[in-house]
Amino acid sequence: MEQDVNIKITDREGVMHEVLAPTDMAMNLMELVRSYELAPEGTIGVCGGMAMCASCQCYVKTDHNLPEMTDDEDAMLAEAFDVQDNSRLGCQIQITHELEGLEIELAPES
User: Fold this and answer.
1) Strands (DSSP E) along 1-110, which ranges?
2) What is the distance between the alpha carbons of residues 37 and 45, in angstroms, rounded to a whole number?
3) What is the per-residue pLDDT across 37-60, written as a single tens digit (0 to 9) for each?
4) Cα angle: 13, vertex 108, 104; to 5 degrees
């Protein structure tokens, strides 16, 4: 079985990056963005992926069946800037085979 999925990430400059995301490393979208250096260091995942800062907020552009939003994620997005109906915290979305073809856009830095 294929271990990687294709994900399209539009960075904060508006540039789209097509990346391969491993499904066998227990990574989340925030860690994927960091590993490909698609956001300046110190501007994404500030809280370390604990759903406490919203620095990894992204807009989901495709209709994927994502994990249900947790209460912590919902509460953090309620306090974040530039929130849209399709906003999610990248740190709360684990990379799985179901994310094949996912497209996201990083929210502006707050």
Assistant:
1) 4-10, 16-22, 57-60, 87-89, 102-106
2) 12
3) 999 999 999 999 999 999 999 999
4) 75
